[in-house]
Write a structure and sequence with these properties.
CATH superfamily of the largest domain: GAF domain
Strand content: 15-25%
Shape: elongated
Structural class: alpha+beta
CATH architecture of the largest domain: 2-Layer Sandwich
CATH class of the largest domain: Alpha Beta
Strand order of the largest sheet: 2-1-5-4-3
Amino acid sequence: MERVGDFSEQKLLLQAVFERSFEAIIIIDRALRFVEVNPSACELFGSTREELIGQSIRNFVTCPLDLEGQDIAKMPILHPQGESKTVEYSRVKDLLPEYNLLVLRDVTNLQRAAEAELHRQHQRVQLFSDVTLKIRQSLQLKEILHTAVTEVQRILQADRVLIYQVFANGTGMPISEAVLPDYAPILGVEFPEEVFPEDYRELYAEGRVQAIADVHRADKALAECLVEFMDEWMVKAKLVVPILQNLKSQTEETQHRDRLWGLLIAHQCATPRQWTDFELELMQQLADQIGIALSQAELLENLEDLVAERTTKLREANSNLQQEINDRLDAEAALRRSEEQLRLIANGLPVLIAYVDKQQRYRFNNEVYQTWLGLSPTKIDGCHLKKVHGEEEYQKIREYVETALSGQTVNYETDIILLDGWVHSLSVTYIPHFNERKKNVVQGFFALTSDISDRKAIERMKDEFISVVSHELRTPLTSIHSSLKILATGKLGNLSSKGQRMLNIADEQTERLVRLVNNVLDLQSIQSGKVKMNKKACKAKELMIEAVQTMQTMAQEHEVKLLAKPVNFMVWADPDYIVQTLTNLVSNAIKFSPPDSTVWLSAKRKYQRKTTKRKKSISYITFEVKDQGQGIPANQLETIFERFQQVDSSDSRKKGGTGLGLAICRQIIEEHNGKIWAKSRLERGSTFYFTLPIVLPKGGDSNDQ
């Protein structure tokens, strides 16, 4: 009787578990009909026990069901109210002869959450891919950095995003920035040493990421000088991610080491901000992409040496064979990832990219060769240039190829029929690849080819337009201007005072049109190469004096004081064009200076170290034209040297500006192998600079006098 009592208690216990289980439990027969269900199963299927008993489970499943295949699986069921659910079941087969027990769990919400998370991850990956693609579309570091800060500011909606470069001596400054107009730019401002001490640099070099939601929170324990510095620039919160450059060391025991190249920084200036994990991850990934852009050139040169060095070290080490094998596999995996990244970058660029060895055989081609020329990179790999392009085309490029293999960079343009059947104008650049150890030994060259057909078409249209201007506008304008000058003398009769004013206005505007046409023609002549610079040794002092004498009358008319400090240097230049440049810059300074202000013309000698074995220095003179005018916004300092670009168009028209003077100056200076640029502060004035090479006397030096 005692055993019967125990069995009854066990039966009651199992019945209680069956009835009160949160998981749905059903018993089905071989025909998949419900034999028994618990309350949780009724709730799951949306029916009562009486409605379910005897029905086939197939009536609730939206896809073919095979319970014989798996003991644990998922199946979709349809609720009577029309709701679709995903159910995970565990099967206990042969519970009793001809019966199976199923334990079902509703995993609909878990699956939806997983799908939503996958969707969010896909959006993040797509966003990162889009930004990465924009960064990789340019090979110029300056454009890469500008794109990075612009895109990060757009995505994060930050008030300021900047890239801070750390120099070898521990100092540094921001070199690229995207900032809202409400906040002052930091670009070019040198950070005090106390706000970026050595222990900070060491932490960042180890990959430290600093996310500060509020710079004034006491628990952040920021240095007082750093908080004061951030208050000066209205920084409430900041996110700092290190940009690490992976270097290859051949002398140190560690083969790979990360060097702190700089920092990617986001500022929130309006209010404090809690940075999210996604924002941290995005900033870290973009910092990695910038690091890859910095290192890719070194990777191309060092891949073979990296493998050889790692292999040698693995063979020499015998203390732990298994560790050696693991290290070798890790190194090879890193190389494959690096090669894959470089190939992805090359294939994503809209230019032909190839590497040719010193035997003139292709060793690398991106996939654009297939798109443009119908040449499969895998088929032409290892083939000679002559075999790929044919005898006739090879003879055209042979001279350029031999020049590149001699160690000189080559640029040329050519026309070719591409796969679309049209003739395209292409710009080709060959960049020599020197051996890392033997700097004078060329291993091959990189070939970069871009389609410039659109640019050529625009240039042809421009030339046609200039021709029309030359023949159809200059002659009648000159005649009109001369006629107006004669009328202004009164020889053909006197006009009323109102008529005389109208005549003066017409004369001024006609003179401006003549000047505009002449400037356009001058610029076109210089750019097209029709004008040959008559360069010779000139005295900088005489050039400066002539420019000042020419502009003295204009300075007096504008009540501006013109000061010059001539220097005794000999420069290699065309004197007429350099005087034209000086008078143009001085004229602009006078026109945009207020009365009773001063314009200065001066020059200084500079040195530039040449990277040669003898480490010789070249000397050049820097001319400076400084005014006390209204200044130029920082975002326009580059564009003012473009054609028809003016700081304030309305003001420039009143002062007779054409928008071509600075463009002509830049073209003249570049023809002299010099540089021209400007610095300015609003309401403080502007300074324009340009350089010319100095002609040194034999066996001596020239000094300021």
